[in-house]
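Re: beginner question about structure tokens

> Can someone show what the tokenized structure looks like for a real chain? I only ever see the sequence side.

Sure, here's an example I had lying around. Input first:
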Amino acid sequence: MKFTKMHGCGNDYIYIYTGEESVADEDKTELSIKLSDRHKGIGSDGIIFINPTDKADFEMEMYNADGSRGKMCGNGIRCVGKYVYDHGLTDKTSIDILTGSGIKKLELEVDINKNAVSGATVNMGSPILEASKIPVVIKGIGEAERVISIPLAINGEEYNITCVSMGNPHCVIFMDEDINMLKLEEIGPLYEHNVIFPERVNTEFINVIDRGHLSMRVWERGSGETMACGTGACASAVAAVLNDLADREVDIKLKGGDLHILWNEDDGCVYMTGPAETVFEGTF
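And the corresponding structure tokens:
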């Protein structure tokens, strides 16, 4: 079976095009666990299957490293755009990708010297802020209310959380202490599996540099700490605006690189711009 290893800001996935390779649905969970293993497999944050579909130009079917399904990955979808263009599956630079959280529109950036995609801008849609739709369940917070700077006790310490869904649930914490000093492997799972998050949660820890720049670390449900998270960067930008800590257009520094995020006031959508890179291709 042919595969391509790709990453967006270090958020790496194994990409398999099912128009050429056949994978039974019942095998996909086990395959993601096996191949994502960084010691005994290829090594990745999960697998993304690129499927033919009549509902959009292509479909993105995502599995996390633990085999669980993911609805959307901002870094992953940019790489889907690069894959289909670089492999000659499309010659369009504006494409629609069907995801678990709806159809997302991509504008591809093409390096004309290499005739290959170097990055993309993705319309990630409007953020979901109602507690019941994220979902997050907190006593005293109504289903239609927003969770903005609400205190939550974790491991004996109180943190203020802001919750946003970008097709998958996010919990954003703004911190005064240096996020690089956090023991994320200890605190991350305490958020991911907290009872207030019925579908688990991705958690972003943020230092505000200024109103146009944020620094972020992320603990992703099903994958642990990753080098970057596109939906998490979008959620963090939205949360920063809701807490009046940043403007609507920000650059976010992640462990694996930088993403540019715009929460457009006119249409309410969040636009993410960032790189997409191929690491290597192979067979297993």
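Each token stands for a local structural state, so reading them left to right follows the chain. The first helix runs from residue 25 to 36.
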